[in-house]
Amino acid sequence: MKILFVATVLSHICQFHLPYLRMLKEQGHEIHVAAHDNLAVKNGLQLRYADNHIEIPFERSPFDRRNIKAYRRLKELIDGGNYDLIVCNTPVGGILTRLAARKARKQGTKVVYIAHGFHFFRGAPRKNWLLYYPLEKHFARLCDMVITINEEDYQLAKSCVPGRVEHIHGIGVDGNRYHPASKEEQGVMRQKEGLSGEDFVVLCTGELNENKNQKTLIAAAAMLKERIPHLKVLLGGNGPKEQELKAQVRELGLEETVRFLGYRTDLERVVPAVDVVVSCSRREGLPLNIVEAMLCEKPIVASTNRGHRELVKDGATGFLLAPDDAAGFADRIKKLNDDQELRKMFGSKGLSRAQAYTVSRVQKELQMIIDNCVLS
Length: 376
Known about the structure:
By secondary structure, the protein is an alpha/beta fold. The protein folds into 2 domains: 2-172 and 358-375, Glycogen Phosphorylase B (Rossmann fold, 3-Layer(aba) Sandwich); 183-356, Rossmann fold (3-Layer(aba) Sandwich). The chain is 43% helix and 18% strand. It has a 7-stranded parallel beta sheet, with helices on both faces. A 6-stranded parallel beta sheet has the order 10-9-8-11-12-13, with helices on both faces. The model has no long low-confidence stretch (mean pLDDT 95).
């Protein structure tokens, strides 16, 4: 088959889809990727397993008029590409691809949209339902299948999105990369990161943006600075809120407590060495960073949203609380600092739960779905 993967930015494909590009490439398929190349700011992230990358000048906002040019370029590509299957991702990439592929579908091309987290969901603002739900309901008719990556979106889509809906367990995390490490291995990792054995290390990874909400963790760190003398908070990622978050750290006098790691492609050398993984996100589909942490047997403190609810069982594999509850985050982190046995219990149960979300498991699910889609 000749297969086209589309996303708004190339980093999305490189972060989430390389295992599936590799799987399809090893099966002898021809793989093309269409996306805006933003890898220059992603610190060594690379596209692999693709025969061709086509630059499409997508803008992230669906209302940006420059996406008209992106649509025209994408339609030209699809109309002349003779693709058997198109897999589209991300809001803008998903909308424009389904529009551009209308002619190709009439000629037999199958189009699949992977929803990495609907903007309308239980507890979402009313404006999200008024804007995004009608859009998704309409565009679901312009593809052969919608694939959801969490159970809540799957149940929602089955009830209110037309057409065929399938479910996979996230995008998958490589269990060969992320796994528990011995104390000796953790010590070596800590030394390389400039951390000591006495440090109580909290890790939060993700783009530095409004949704990921790292400011709540920084506020919690200020509350904990005196209560946990050797506290170290590591923030992995880059993004539009970086300078604002660094200013918050300076204002709170946390320069020795909070460290910005930048964008990292080797987090498997960091996650096993920390004590707790935290996420304060307002919205998640099925977050890889939480699965990575669970596979490394780490306890989780996370905000309540559908992606976190699916992975983290409050009081069993970690703690869940409101995204802006800095005092609550501080309290739960302190509890884990004080109770090593609780950390071990959460980590052990999390490791078991995370097995359903590994690459090997999701590869089988996605392979079956794609085969059924193409053959039907």
